[in-house]
């Protein structure tokens, strides 16, 4: 959508009409946009009365089809000087500055191409080809010659493919794809396979996974083996993103049939990438299978240190096993990203962020895992998602959201780590806005159907922040019933209403800094502490919470302490904890959490007692007490709070009066109350403050 907004000058009707004509994969960013964009009614209406002399039309057409925006070639093409053009009527459609030229209104480029006869377009390309040939620009010359040709031109194909490969490796995959696609129309035999390979690789780098799967898939089974193996890593990446899981194939079935070292290296790199993709998705058996293939290939080509060792370290880190030697590779993924994640999970998030930031001021080294893609948008997307994750772990919620929204404008952030970028975008929207924003919804739509993200947790957080505790608790219970799906790299959830082990010591698959585990442990202690232990537990938890460096993590602990103090009618202490929490949430940039805490503080004021109560005043207690009592004890307690006598409770539950007395005795002991009236008062305080 950001690309359309730029090319269509923010024209909302035109954007809407173009989107309606796009393929579903283009809408989701899985295919490139058509070049040029279609002339929709909104564009046609804007220029319906525009009349252009042939010379001006050709100049505008030439500008719309050239590969760059240099002014000099266009002046040579047109034959007029810059001064003469600036005095002509066509000048109002152009912006000339510092030797560059562009359209005043980018929609005109779309209109002029669509309204010009194909023969005229071909003639303009032919003239541009001669201009660039005379200037010594072979790339542009071959591009325009190929576009002007009505028949295959194998001579142009090889040069277009070569330049497309260089552009792809330099981090310009969309331009590379444009050239490589043109090359496939003119190349023959092995040259065509190479053009398809480059088109597919460029598509992967840009995040156009549907396009990539088609180009690279066309090499199987009849393409040249060398090109098939070179495209294998990209094909596995594309198919994994589209189907949500790494393709279930036997690595040995894809082995080279020759002894060529280059072929074996391509196969080995594909195995390495497949292992990491499996690790991202928590698929340990698949990861081990591909790692075994990686070991075989690395031993054969001598790539143990540059490829095998860092990939094994990264794979095991991603599935939650950190007990490995301090091995890293080079480049953006197996080098910087691995080092940054390792520093963060070892407790130094700031060091991790500095490690990631270093590549902004240093030339990136080659990375054997993603050779040729070091500067691609998809690799930059990985870096951006890790940066945002580390900012979240540090508690810098506002900045993290700014970074993820900025990255989403130009990078395929739905690809890394099985949708982690989408989960982060949604969770950060909730923390700041209290609801899922439009960018996050678009990112969610771009995920493959098989990708599982914890939408129920998002719903629970939205309900919790809106004060709908019962709805939040219901969503979390359902989430637990469904197996608690979540990302391996920990993203803040909602353990305030569900005592889970999502980041506890019994969940070794979760990857997070020690602070995340500590904060989770403190919240669980608060939620499960009885009145008998409350004072000592509160002091210990508060002391531990003060060691948390993340303002967001500490604020959530302070909030729970404040709520529990309010439930126990210690209003002064409750206000103290909640005020600290509010300030910390504001410091973190978590505006929606801060608003929720302000609402709780308002309820502690005298007028808060007159506020409306929920229609079912027992439902909140039911959930809170279910973390301390058995299911039967909860039923007995709720009926007692509702005013039922022992005989009535026994009849309602089809048990004996003696059984009811035993259950009530256990309830009183666990909740540290002595009489029904105290139990009832505790229930209403719980409902009011949770």
Give structural notes:
The protein is mainly α and 690 residues long. Among the domains are: 2-46, no CATH class; 514-610; 619-689, Arc Repressor Mutant, subunit A. The chain has helices at 2-7, 12-21, 24-27, 41-46, 54-65, 71-78, 82-87, 107-114, 118-134, 138-148, 154-169, 173-186, 189-206, 209-217, 225-243, 261-280, 284-301, 304-318, 332-345, 349-357, 377-394, 397-408, 420-432, 438-445, 455-465, 469-481, 514-528, 531-545, 551-567, 571-588, 591-604, 619-626, 631-641, 646-653, 657-671, 676-689, and strands spanning 94-97, 100-103. The protein has a two-stranded antiparallel ribbon with strand order 1-2. The model is unreliable at 501-508 and 608-615 (pLDDT under 50).
Helix- and strand-based class?
A: mainly alpha
Taking the sheet with the most strands, its summary is:
2 strands, antiparallel
Give the DSSP E fraction (strand runs of 2 or more residues): under 5%
Low-confidence spans:
501-508, 608-615
How much is the radius of gyration in Å? 31 Å
Number of helices: 36
Give the terminus-to-terminus CA distance. 41 Å
Q: How would you describe the oligomerization state of the chains in this entry?
A: single chain
């Amino acid at each position: 959508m950001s690309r359309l907004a730029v090319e269509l000058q923010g024209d909302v009707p035109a954007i809407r009409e173009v989107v309606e004509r796009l393929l579903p994969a283009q809408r989701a960013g899985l295919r490139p946009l058509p070049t040029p964009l279609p002339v929709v009614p909104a564009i046609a209406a804007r220029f319906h009365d525009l009349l252009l002399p042939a010379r001006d039309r050709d100049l505008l057409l030439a500008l719309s089809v050239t590969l760059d925006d240099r002014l000099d070639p266009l002046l040579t093409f047109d034959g007029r000087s810059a001064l003469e053009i600036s005095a002509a009527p066509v000048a109002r459609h152009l912006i000339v500055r510092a030797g560059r030229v562009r359209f005043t209104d980018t929609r005109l480029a779309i209109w002029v191409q669509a309204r010009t006869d194909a023969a005229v377009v071909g003639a303009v390309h032919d003239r541009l080809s001669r201009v660039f040939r005379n200037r010594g620009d072979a790339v542009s010359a071959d591009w325009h010659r190929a576009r002007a040709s009505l028949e295959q031109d194998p001579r142009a194909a090889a040069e277009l493919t070569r330049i497309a490969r260089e552009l792809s490796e330099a981090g310009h995959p969309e331009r590379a794809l444009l050239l490589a696609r043109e090359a496939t129309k003119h190349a023959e035999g092995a040259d065509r396979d190479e053009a398809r390979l480059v088109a597919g690789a460029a598509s992967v780098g840009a995040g156009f996974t549907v396009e990539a799967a088609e180009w690279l898939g066309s090499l199987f089974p009849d393409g040249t083996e060398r090109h098939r193996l070179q495209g294998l890593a990209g094909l596995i990446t594309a198919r994994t993103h589209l189907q949500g899981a790494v393709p279930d194939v036997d690595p040995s079935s894809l082995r080279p049939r020759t002894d060529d070292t280059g072929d074996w290296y391509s196969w080995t790199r594909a195995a390495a990438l497949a292992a990491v993709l499996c690790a991202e998705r928590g698929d340990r058996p698949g990861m081990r299978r591909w790692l075994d293939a990686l070991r075989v290939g690395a031993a054969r080509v001598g790539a143990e240190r540059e490829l095998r060792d860092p990939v094994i370290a990264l794979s095991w880190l991603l599935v939650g096993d950190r007990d490995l030697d301090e091995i890293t590779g080079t480049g953006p993924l197996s080098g910087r990203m691995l080092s940054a994640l390792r520093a963060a999970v070892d407790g130094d998030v700031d060091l991790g962020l500095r490690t990631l930031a270093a590549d902004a001021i240093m030339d990136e080294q080659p990375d054997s895992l993603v050779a040729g893609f070091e500067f691609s948008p998809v690799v930059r997307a990985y870096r951006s998602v890790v940066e945002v994750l580390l900012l979240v772990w540090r508690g810098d919620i506002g900045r993290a959201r700014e970074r993820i929204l900025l990255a989403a404008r130009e990078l395929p952030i739905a690809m890394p780590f099985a949708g982690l970028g989408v989960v982060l975008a949604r969770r950060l929207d909730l923390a700041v806005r209290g609801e899922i924003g439009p960018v996050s919804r678009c990112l969610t739509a771009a995920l493959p159907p098989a990708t599982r993200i914890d939408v129920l947790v998002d719903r629970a957080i939205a309900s919790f922040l809106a004060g709908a505790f019962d709805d939040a608790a219901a969503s979390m219970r359902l989430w637990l019933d469904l197996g608690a799906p979540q990302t391996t790299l920990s993203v803040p959830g909602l353990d305030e209403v569900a005592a889970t082990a999502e980041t506890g010591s019994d969940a070794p698959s979760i990857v997070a800094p020690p602070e995340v585990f500590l904060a989770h442990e403190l919240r669980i202690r608060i939620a499960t502490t009885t009145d008998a232990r409350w004072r000592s537990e509160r002091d210990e938890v508060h002391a531990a919470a003060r060691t948390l460096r993340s303002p967001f993590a500490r604020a959530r602990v302070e909030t729970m302490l404040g709520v529990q103090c309010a439930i126990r009618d210690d209003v002064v202490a409750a206000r103290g904890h909640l005020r600290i929490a509010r300030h910390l949430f504001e410091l973190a940039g978590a505006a929606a959490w801060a608003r929720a805490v302000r609402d709780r503080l308002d309820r502690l004021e005298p007028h808060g007692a007159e506020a409306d109560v929920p229609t079912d005043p027992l439902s909140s207690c039911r959930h809170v007490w279910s973390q301390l009592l058995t299911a039967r004890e909860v039923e007995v307690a709720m009926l007692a709070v509702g005013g039922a006598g022992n005989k009535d409770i026994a009849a309602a539950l089809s048990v004996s009066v003696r059984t009811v007395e035993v259950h009530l005795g256990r309830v009183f002991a666990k909740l540290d109350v002595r009489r029904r009236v105290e139990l009832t008062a505790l229930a209403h305080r719980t409902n009011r403050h949770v």
